[in-house]
Design a protein that fits this description.
The protein has a 5-stranded mixed beta sheet with strand order 1-2-5-3-4. 46% of the residues lie in helices and 12% in strands. The longest helix is centred in the last third of the chain and has 23 residues. It has a single domain, classed as Protein-Tyrosine Phosphatase, Chain A (Alpha-Beta Complex). By secondary structure, the chain is an alpha/beta fold. The model has no long low-confidence stretch (mean pLDDT 94). It is an enzyme of class 3 (hydrolase). It holds the Pfam family DSPc. It catalyses: O-phospho-L-threonyl-[protein] + H2O = L-threonyl-[protein] + phosphate; O-phospho-L-seryl-[protein] + H2O = L-seryl-[protein] + phosphate.
Length: 181
């Protein structure tokens, strides 16, 4: 199992932490990670083929985007919001199960295309995308983050990296218990 320090080295191998160079990136087929900008344009999202929006920065105040179901439903988009701060002390893991279910259910539709966003698309939303890959595509945290990092500049905070490692362990334990039953 990896450590937080190993994940950080994996994400910034050359020592430079770069902010995302594009507003949104497809990090897995039909799964996109973005900053807040694209999420503010539901008509544009619909035109681009998106069907679902997962806001990882739900709410008001600094570092938040206050959108809701009514903001997207008039454009035929399904919405789910998570109210979590981008802080190493925030418990993002309490949202992993519901976020993974939303993404998985969305992706189960033939036409499902999901935008997972936060304010910068750098920490919260890639962490949620990684949690989904860990649970539904049998990846380790290192594999999921490597895959996402190959598509987008990301660097989840230390607390989120720790929680992804815990999530990996939880999913692996559940899988081994299921296999032995």
């Amino acid at each position: 199992m990896s450590t937080v320090e190993e994940l950080q080295t994996l994400l910034n191998g050359d020592g430079a932490v770069l902010m995302p160079s594009r507003s949104k990136d497809e990090v897995w087929p039909r799964l996109w990670v973005s900053e807040a900008g694209p999420a503010k344009d539901p008509a544009g999202l619909k035109e681009s083929g998106f069907t679902h929006v997962l806001n990882c920065s739900q709410g008001t105040g600094f570092g938040r985007l206050n959108t809701d179901d009514s903001f997207y439903s008039q454009h035929g988009l399904s919405f789910h919001g998570l109210s979590v701060a981008d802080s190493a002390r925030s418990n993002l893991m309490v949202f992993f199960e519901e976020a993974c279910a939303f993404i998985h259910d969305s992706m189960s539709r033939d036409d499902g295309v999901v935008l997972v966003h936060c304010m910068e698309g750098f920490s919260r939303s890639p962490s949620i995308a990684a949690a989904y890959l860990i649970k539904h595509h049998n990846m380790t945290a290192a594999e999921a983050l490597t895959h996402i990092r190959a598509k987008r500049e990301v660097f989840p905070n230390e607390g989120f990296l720790k929680q992804l490692l815990q999530w990996q362990e939880t999913i692996q334990q559940a899988s081994s218990e299921k296999d032995s039953a």
